Amino acid sequence: MEYLLFILYLVFFAWLATRIPFFKRSGLTQSQLIIVFLLKVMAGIFYGWIGLYYGGLAKMSDTWAYHTYGIQEYNLLLQHPGEYFTNLFYNPYEGDSFQKFFGASDSYWNDLKGNVFIKVMSVFDIFSFGYYYVNVILFSLLSLFGPVAIYRVMADAFPSKKLPVLLATFLVPSVLYWTSGIHKDGLIFVGISLVVYHVYFGLKENKFGIKRIAGILLGLFLLLLLRNYILVIIIPAVFAWLLASRWPQKGLAIFASLYVLFIVLFFSIRYISPQLDFPQAVVNKQKEFLKLEGNASVPIKELEPTVGSFMKSIPQAFTISTIRPYPSDVRHILSLAAAAEIMLLLILFITFLVFRYKTIQSNNFTWFCIFFSISMLLAIGFSVNNLGAIVRYRSIIIPLLVVPMVAQTNWSRLNKLLSNGIKNNNNMSNFH
Questions:
Q1: Is-above-0.70 flag for pTM?
Q2: How many structural domains comprise the chain?
Q3: Burial zone of 79 (CB within 10 Å; 0-12 exposed, 13-18 middle, 19+ buried)
Q4: Which of 37, 179, 240, 421 is deepest in the core (most CB within 10 A)?
């Protein structure tokens, strides 16, 4: 029954991917849409297989836990529908756990992200009859909105670089893997992508209608439910983007000035509202990760909720979130893949520096990508010391850095140089 259902759903949803208007208007052909959808399905299947057979070693058992809890919620829907529709609002903690918006433990909001995702899985189970790999197909179509939205933005921003944009958007291994598996990251990527997509085209059209505003709010709502601290990072970035659009020639200065203000507010707003103690929230999050033991955990200097402590930790935070794992960190297949990808991305970055176009596109969208992505990487590096979690968390912002970089690399000049080099080597061989 599972195999038959899987085949039927795979064929139907592959066809459906070519019929959804948002996908059809992306400029991708029907064949390309089917291919990227099938790639996500394959990545999702591999994700589940890793979680099943290497869950303990690679710390990937969460995906199957969500599946199990989703089936329990599905059964709850059948047996006690009233509880099913209300338990998401139940607070099991006493005291002020509702106020612990960024709390790492004993917090309604901290539990909400898992509870919401379990609820999503229970809805999938209505159609999949509780089969994990059938759910992969449903999730693949839903999470496809993320990369397609980013592709539409990047293809518009770099109209003459459709192929590099296509490859960099859909084929970065960690992005494909982590956003295709049954976990929160795929929907978080959708949330970020919706915000980026609707702000970008709203500014281009100089119009923010109901659909644009609704799209932005939907993206922010997904982030609120699934990883709320990203709101503190993306809202300032979008605000700077919107303000800089008023004075396009001063984009960098506006972004830099506003981010200085945001940093001041980050450390000082707690004196106005103790509930908004952002530095302490980061420290608490780091402490929770430090409690977790595993082969993928690396030693880091513990933070204190002070300006000086955060400033001293910037090099460590940026290093751990951008270029780890090192080859020496490899412990299993996922860390090997992550280390190999980092090497590839570093090679691409060096290639970009050497073969970039003389005129680099430095508009406000580019500055948004840079400032938002660096802020995300620092937030990850400050609070997380587990390399597996770091690789997963950073996957959702890699396209915002890699796609503009790849699009602005002069691949023709590189190809010509390589061709000439090969030709010269052949000539030398013939001469000898």
A1: yes
A2: 1
A3: exposed
A4: 179
